[in-house]
Amino acid sequence: MTIDLAQAAAEARAALAAGRREAIHCNTLGWFHAVNGDPAGAARHFREALAIAPRDPEALVGLAGLLRDAGQLREAALHCDAALAAAPDYADGWFERACVMAAGGVMDEAARCYRRVVELQPGHGPAHAGLASIAARDGDADGVRRHAPAALAANPQDAVATAALASVELEAGDAARARELAEAVVGTLGGPSGERSHLLAILGDACDRLGDHAAAETAYVRSKQDFAAVHARTFVGRPSHARFVAQIAAQIPDLHPARWPAPDPAAARGPASRHVFVLGYPRSGNTLLENVLASLPGCAALEERPTLRDADQAFLAEGGLARLDSAPEADLAAFRAAYWEHVRGAGLAVDGQCFVDMDPLKGIRLPLIARLFPEARVLLVRRDPRDVVWSCFRTNFALTNAAMDFTTLEGAARHYDATMQLIEAARGALPLNVLEVHYHRLVQDFDATTRAICEFIDMPWSEDLRRFDRTARQRGVATASARQVRQGLFDGTRQWERHADFLAPVLPILRPWVERFGYA
Predict the structure, then answer these.
(1) CA angle 511, 516, 518 (to 5 degrees)
(2) Distance CA 240, CA 369 (A)
(3) Residue 483 has pLDDT above 70, yes or no
(4) Which of 207, 247, 342, 348 has the highest CB neighbour number within 10 Å of its CB?
(5) What angle, rounded to 10 degrees, do the helices at 159-172 and 125-137 form?
(6) Secondary structure (3-state) at 302
(7) Closest C-alpha to 58, from 35, 101, 29, 17
(8) Paired residues of 301 in beta bridges
(9) Domain of 341?
(10) Looking at the structure, do residues 248 and 153 belong to the same domain, yes or no?
(11) DSSP character for 507?
(12) How far is residue 399's CA from residue 104's CA, in Å, rounded to a whole number?
């Protein structure tokens, strides 16, 4: 809160009390409540402004920001669009829309919106910081060095721009400089924020690269604490995602796949010639495998989109798998159609192609896949559970239910355990075409592993698969694995060993899976 805003809020209250009912006063109070951590109060005042002036762009953008913070990205985008329809040159509207798109992983559109802000206001520091952040994600060092200084000229403590610069230094191999940049700004930031969480994660990476593992662990813990604090209000009263996963797993033994009528193979396959799911668990190598397959001629791949959203809502609620079990084929056809509509909505042309749907957590949707797409092939990516959980804890993820579980080591380990139990239950009970792909084999014996994968999905092997790093740079990667995938084959095995003492409390949770998957 600034003194100016507090004073403006007091004046706005006085104006409203005096009967001067104007949208500008409601908006001022909306921002005051938003800045002071009262989203309900902020929303009330922004809505009051809209009751006075239904197309008021400031109120619409204020509500969009609240909706974005609550994870309601579609509604947030619609509010931005309404604001920009009313005021096409409203820079704050374009900026909020960029933030919404970035939160949803639609980075090309986010960059377009940030550029529009800069066109309207060339010195807009946060927009330059946003462009620097996207450039860092894409490995565009020149873009980072162009936009980050412009952001820092407006605010020398801009955490987003600093994180982008530090990330570029890390990718160039200068971890000491990355640490110096991050430490210089982290200490100047106030309370918990998403920006500080991200910068702390990069600081952790820099310390880890330098061999200062204790400092790295401290930075990661602080990063996760910030993330949890920022989003705590959104998830208050909700069960953990691990509990949700366990509820789905508990329903699997009650399914009767032998009674399921077989759908027409062509209808189940949809417009693609072949249908492949890449799943397993975050930080297991899914993004790497997706970009490998995307390098294959005749293959179209989609990265982490909610393609099964309609079926999720219908069948993954408590008791919902019973409805899936008994659903007639005519009803399921609508869910298949919705799936392919989401694929088309992502801008992907899959007709006649081998279509790869990559999403690590689609493993919890194996019952849906088995019933809706019995012809699909499933590539189940495995990695040492200790490396997986350590990586999930240290990685700065976008907001999801699962990401909240990853804010503590124990939460990450229990989420992994719940997900593996579901996957094993599904594999034992359901008709699924599954090939396990072990990360260490993929990076250590690439050609043999990819030949086996191509045989499984009935696609000819090609030397183009070896150039997946080029594919990643051309396509862009929105997941947390972007930097590693761009750099080619990276053997990330046994990273957990440097942090064995830190991980000791959760190793008993992971030990059964370590032994079961052959990593003991």
Answers:
(1) 95
(2) 23
(3) no
(4) 207
(5) 30
(6) strand
(7) 29
(8) 356
(9) 241-255+265-488
(10) no
(11) H
(12) 9
